[in-house]
């Protein structure tokens, strides 16, 4: 009996020491994350994307992650119609995709394409096929309109050259450099001045905002046409706090 009692005391001591070590390590990790917001943000992204990857193939880019803190402020936006406080919003800018995820149930609440620009106002673009692939401009137009719902394609033509290795975005308006950059990031292209020899097609009375020359590096990503999420202004949600 005495031996059993001694054994139990040793076992309890080991469990106690193990628990103490665990909580000590957890506390030290929490303190480290609090002192380094960047590390905390990366930790949050890693945790959320790992959970999401069980349900879907994720884009090959690091997303932005935010937490819904006050769903009442977001209820007028269709994307947040079923949002709850604590939900995570994962935004893949280059891929044009936003995901509403609920960690408490491990479920995806909604997925939506994102808007470019400062509002829902249409963005007028002209698309030139800079490759030898017939019909690529038309294919690209259909894809980009599925991803970004405030896009208005004014025309599709062939570029003067058909050997563009990389897609090019030109700010024809001269007033929307941020918009041009967002578009370039979305399609894997670069922002540039109008290449020598190229001309902007006539579009009647409508002002062209951006000229897109589709290059050989283009990778089309299809996104179902669902309610959209605006990129600018930023979503009315607070950054994820360090845990």
Structure commentary:
With 243 residues, the chain is an alpha/beta fold. The protein has three domains: 1-35; 40-115 and 226-239; 123-214, Alpha-Beta Plaits (2-Layer Sandwich). Helix content is 30%, strand content 22%. The protein is built from four helices and eleven strands. The chain has helices at 2-35, 37-52, 136-147, 177-187, and strands at 64-67, 88-92, 97-102, 107-115, 123-129, 151-158, 168-171, 190-191, 210-214, 229-230, 238-239. The strands form two sheets. The chain has a six-stranded mixed β-sheet with strand order 10-4-3-2-1-11, covered by helices on one side. The radius of gyration is 25 Å and the shape is elongated. Mean pLDDT is 75; it is low at 5-9, 14-26 and 221-243.
Task: Report the average pLDDT across residues.
Answer: 75
Measure the end-to-end span: 47 Å
How many domains in all?
Answer: 3
Low-pLDDT runs: 5-9, 14-26, 221-243
The general outline is elongated
Instruction: Kindly provide the radius of gyration, computed on alpha-carbon positions and rounded to a whole number of angstroms.
Output: 25 Å
Q: What is the CATH class designation of the largest domain?
A: Alpha Beta
Strand/helix succession = HHEEEEEHEEHEEEE
Percentage beta strand: 15-25%
Number of H- or I-type helical stretches = 4
State the total count of DSSP E strands: 11
Secondary-structure-based class equals: alpha/beta
Major sheet size, sense and barrel closure: 6 strands, mixed
CATH third-level topology of the largest domain: Alpha-Beta Plaits
Q: Order of strands across the widest beta sheet? A: 10-4-3-2-1-11
Q: Helicity range of the residues? A: 25-40%
| CATH architecture identity of the largest domain | 2-Layer Sandwich
């Amino acid at each position: 009996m005495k031996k059993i009692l001694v054994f139990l005391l040793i076992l309890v001591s080991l469990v106690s020491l193990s628990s103490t070590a665990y909580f000590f390590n957890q506390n030290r990790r929490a303190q480290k994350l609090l002192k380094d917001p960047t590390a905390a943000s990366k930790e949050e992204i890693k945790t959320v994307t790992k959970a999401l990857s069980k349900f879907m193939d994720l884009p090959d880019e690091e997303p932005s992650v935010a937490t819904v803190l006050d769903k009442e402020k977001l209820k007028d936006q269709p994307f947040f119609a079923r949002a709850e406080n604590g939900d995570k919003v994962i935004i893949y800018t280059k891929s044009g995709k936003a995901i509403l995820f609920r960690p408490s149930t491990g479920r995806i609440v909604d997925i939506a394409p994102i808007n470019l620009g400062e509002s829902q106002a249409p963005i007028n673009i002209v698309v030139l096929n800079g490759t030898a692939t017939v019909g690529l401009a038309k294919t690209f137009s259909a894809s980009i309109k599925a991803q970004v719902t405030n896009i208005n394609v004014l025309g599709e033509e062939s570029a003067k050259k058909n050997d563009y290795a990389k897609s090019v975005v030109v700010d024809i308006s001269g007033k929307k450099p941020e918009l041009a950059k967002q578009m370039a990031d979305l399609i894997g292209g670069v922002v540039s001045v109008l290449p020598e020899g190229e001309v902007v097609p006539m579009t009647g009375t409508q002002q062209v905002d951006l000229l897109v020359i589709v290059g050989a590096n283009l990778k089309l990503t299809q996104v179902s046409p669902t309610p959209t999420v605006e990129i600018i202004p930023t979503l009315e949600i607070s950054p994820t706090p360090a845990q």
